[in-house]
Every structure is written in structure tokens, then in C-alpha cells.
Amino acid sequence: MYCEDQCIPYEAVKKLGSGKVLILAPHPDDEVFGCAGAVIRHVESGDPVQVIIVSDGGYLESESRDEYVRTRRQESIRAGNLLGYVPEFWDIPDREVAYGEKLIARIGEVIDTKDIDLVYAPSVTEIHPDHRSLGMAAAEAVRRSKKNILAAFYEVGVPLQPNRLLDITEVMELKRKAMACFPSQLQQQKYDRHIAALNQFRTYTLPSQVQAAEAFFVIDSKQLSADPLALYHSEAEKITFPGSDIEASQNKLVTVIIRSIGREKLLTAALASVALQTYPHIEVLVINAKGKGHPELDQWCGRFPLRVYGMGEPLSRTRAANLGLENARGDYLIFLDDDDLFDPDHVGQLVKALQDRKGYLAAYAGVRVSANETLSKPP
Question: Are residues 9 and 123 in the same domain?
Fold first, then answer.
């Protein structure tokens, strides 16, 4: 029998973890709106907390942009002084936070050099493109971490599907004071009221003495390595990431050829793994080897164009492969069967291997067998 506690926690914790903490915020204020309660808990416990504000927050302020950026920076610094940390600013232009190797590597370097144990980042289901891109990049950086660490994804603009609720009743007043440090944003919209309402709503399934809570989706590196799509399963039909800014590139085109016999659930997972590739220049060819009755597909696989080819009849593996090769436009070609998945950096790593070895014509990577029933069980 289905029970409510299968989709949302009915208990709250006082702290998500311990050790060295990295807070990633897409804009100056998200570190407070999204997870100030968690930050306060860590600071109170003596955990080292590093806060990085990734973008400059200067969107739509063309004439006085520099002054506006400085204002937002000072607001984050004041909030940090109140809560007990000094923020670092990366100053990527607002709405240009791009999911790709550059950002993933930069986050990964911080994780490795600072020996981070817990990373906070915006949820991959956020509506703002900077939020979503940063969440995706953080997830991939955590997946690649040399040690097993935790990632906690927080909500700001869109409620997420949480697996952890943090009781912030005792520190909610301090969070309110921190939110008040951002008058430039509060004069545009009463974000502090929205967040306070969200934190109150998150107590819906909790005991009555819990008056405020922050919601998170928590996952570790091992889980992300075993299932790189773990964050996206509930978003299977939204994998196009509308509005996301993806790292632009003039790199060579890679054609991914997928021979499909119409197993819709497996094919959907395979396509989702292609949509998550960090390499920016890909086309997807799905070869209909089933013939009649093959599932209809969209013209896009995430941000990558998708084309379907078939001959109106069942095709052998070799005929399907040849049909894909005949219609591929890429400089590099790669096959993916419809019951297999790519890790997010799979295509990028293969391209890099070829670019690093002039004169080589082919690159091959190993395989990993997953015991994850969600991925391996046929429909």
C-alpha cells in the first residue's frame, strides 16, 4: 500500500551532516533564501563553511550595472557577517552560468583542494537557468569527487521533492534578519515573505512543535556514480532543461547513434543520459530497428537535436548500424544501445582523449555494470 512517507519525510533533523561545508549560490541572496538555516546550524557546530556566490547578479541593470553588482555584493557580505562566514565571489555574468566542463572543473577543484565533505547547491528542478545549471554542475562535480561526499540540493523558486527536512525553528528569526540584508531584491519582490511561507509550509508533515523547516534532496557521490540520472528520474519528461544556458563551443560535432527496438522505458533513460552530456556539440540519431509500433520521439534530446531513421521494418543490428552511419553528420561517431547509459562526462572524455593524441582515429572507454533495478529492469 502506498503511504505518504514514501514521498516526503515525516521527521525533521537538526543538521544534515558535519565536516567541511561548501555552499554554492547562483546569485547574491540565494545562499540565505535557500539554506541559511542549514548554514547557521553548521556555523553553530563549528563546521568550516565556505560560501561561493557564482554569478554577479547584475542582470537587467545595464546603465548602472557595476553599481548594482557592488550593491548586491555588499548585501551578501552583510548577511555573511551576520551568519558567521565571508562569501567568495566568482563574478560570472548573471544568466551566463553554464553547465559544462569549465564550471564542473572549477567546483571540483574547490571540493578537492578544500577537502569538502558536504556541498549545498540549488535544485536541478529550479526555474531560473543559473540555478538549474549550477545544480547540474554541482551534481556532476560531486559524482566525480575523489572521496564519497554528500550533496544537498535546496529550493528557492520551485519547491523540490525532498528526502530530508531540516528543523530551523530555533534559528528562523536569525534567518529573517539575514534575508533583510537584501533590500535591493526585497524592493522588487517580497522574497523574504515567500521564503518564510515556504519554510512554514515545509512543516506540513512534521510535529506541531516544528514551526519552520528547510527542504533538501540529499545524495552522495557513490549514489550519483551508480545512477547518474538519480536527480532526474522524476523529471524524465522535462529533461530538456528549458531555459538552461549550456556552455557554448566550437568543438567538433559528435553523432550518438542509438539502435532502438522500441523499449520505451530503457530508451527514455538512454536518451536522458545523452541529454546530460557535458560535451556541448552533439547530435542524436535514433535508428528504429523495430519497425511498426516504435515510440514517437521529440525532435530534441535535451539541448541536442534528435533525428529518427528507419526502413519501416525490423532491422538487424548491422543494418541498423549502417543506417546510422549513413546518416551521421558528426566528425566523431559513437554507438549507444537503448539499454545502456552514458556517464555525463563520457563523450567529453573520449573527445579529449582524441584531441590530446594527434593522429589517433578512435577512442574506447570501459563499461560498468549497474545493479540498479531502476535502470536495468525492462519495461
Answer: yes
200 and 270 in a single domain? The answer is no
Asked if residue 127 is part of any domain, the answer here is yes
Interval 58-69: pLDDT, tens: 986 666 899 999
Range of the domain at 304: 249-376
The three-state secondary structure class of 96 is: coil
Confidence category of residue 371, pLDDT binned at 50, 70, 90: low
Residue in the block written with cell 582523449: 353
Q: Is 50 helix (H, G, I), strand (E, B) or coil?
A: strand
The pLDDT of residue 231: 87
Q: Do 326 and 190 share a structural domain?
A: no
| Residue position matching grid coordinates 526585497 | 186
> Which one, of 176, 54, 190, 193, lies nearest residue 122 by Cα?
54
In a domain, 293, yes or no: yes
pTM, rounded to two decimals:
0.79
Judgement on whether residues 316 and 368 belong to the same structural domain of the protein: yes
Query: CA–CA separation, 376 vs 338, rounded Å?
Result: 11
Rounded Cα distance, 146 and 84, in Å: 29
Render 213-254 in DSSP notation, one character per residue: EEEEEEEEHHHHHH-TTTTTGGGGGGTT-TT--B----PPPE
Q: Are 118 and 20 in contact (CB under 8 A)?
A: yes
Residue indicated by cell numbers 558536504: 118
Q: Which residues contact 1 (CB under 8 A, 6 or more apart)?
A: none
Beta strands at 150-154 and 304-310: parallel, antiparallel or unpaired: unpaired
Q: Are residues 54 and 123 in the same domain?
A: yes
Which sign does the torsion angle of CA 245, 246, 249, 252 carry?
negative
pLDDT digits (tens, 9 = 90+) for 251-296: 789 999 999 999 999 999 999 999 999 999 999 999 999 999 999 9
Q: Are residues 124 and 32 in the same domain?
A: yes
- Least confident range of 7-11, 38-42, 252-256: 7-11
The CATH number assigned to the domain holding 339 equals 3.90.550.10
